[in-house]
Input
Amino acid sequence: MKRTCEIVTAGPVSIETYIDGAGDGFDVVVLPSYGRDGGEDFDTFAESVADAGHRVLRPQPRGIAGSTGPMGDVTIDVLAEDVANVIDRVGRGPAVILGHAYGNFVARAVATNHPDKVRAVILAAASSQAPPAEINDAPFVAGDPTLPDAERLAALEAAFFAPGHDASSWLTGWYPQTLAMQRAAVTGIDIGRYWGAGRAMILEVLAEFDPFHPKDQWNDLHAAFGARVTSTIISNASHALFPEQPQAVADAVNDYLATLNWAWVSYRSAHTDEPLRPTLKRMNVPLSLVREDKPCPG
Output
C-alpha cells in the first residue's frame, strides 16, 4: 500500500504524519507508546484498517522522523494540541483516536480538550491507574540505550512481550529524548481529569498478558463509564501488542468501526435532546446510514 506523508506546522512545532489509505470511512489517528515511533510496528495494522475502507493517520511524536518542536516543559495538553492540529489540517472531520500504551494518555487528553475533533477513542494496551511500580518503570529501563542489553531485554520480557515472544526486536527503535519529554508530560498530572476521555465512545483493547493492566482490573473502565465502553481481549499478547498480534488488533478495530455509527447514535440519543440529523451531519456521520423508524400502523 502506498503511504504518503504530510508535515503539519503550527508555530515552532512541525509534526510529520504518515497517511495510509484513501477510503471514505473513518480517519483513525494512531498514537504510539513511550519513546517509540508510529512506524513499522503499526504497518500491518494500518494496511488492514485502510483495506477496510478507512484512512490511518500516524502523527510522529516530537523528536521522531520529521517531527520537531520544543522538548522541554511540554505538558500532556500540549501533546494533545499537536494531534488536534493534525486532525484540523489532514483530517476530514472528527477522528477516531487510537492510543497505544503511553499514547492512551494523549488520546484521552485530545478527547477531553477537543471533543469536537473526536468521534471515538481506542485505548490499546492502556495501563490501569495504578500498575505495579516495577512494571511502571520498565519503559525507562528498556528505552535506555546506555544500559546493558541483558538488563533491557529482561525489562522487555517482563513488561512488554507475552511468554514465548521474541522481545529483542524492541532493543532498537527508542528515542530517549522523546521518552524523557513524554515522561515529564505525565508526571504529576491529574489523571482523573482525562481518564474518561471526555464523553467519547471508548473501545478498550486489552492484552491477555499485559502487566500494566492486570486481569483483576479489566472491568475498571466499564464500571466507571458504563455503556460508553466496549472491551475486547487480544489473546497471546502483552503490552507491546502491535508487533505481537497486529492482525488480531486490526480485526477488533475494524469490527468496532463497523458498528461505531450506530453505537454513537444510540449513546447520543440517550444523552442529548439535540436533533439527530443535524447532529449527524455536523459529526460527518453519513445520513445514508440512518434508519428513521416510523410507528407501526395501528
Remarks:
- The domain at 3-133+176-284 is CATH 3.40.50.1820 (Rossmann fold).
- Strands lie at 3-10, 13-20, 27-31, 55-59, 95-100, 118-124, 201-207, 229-234.
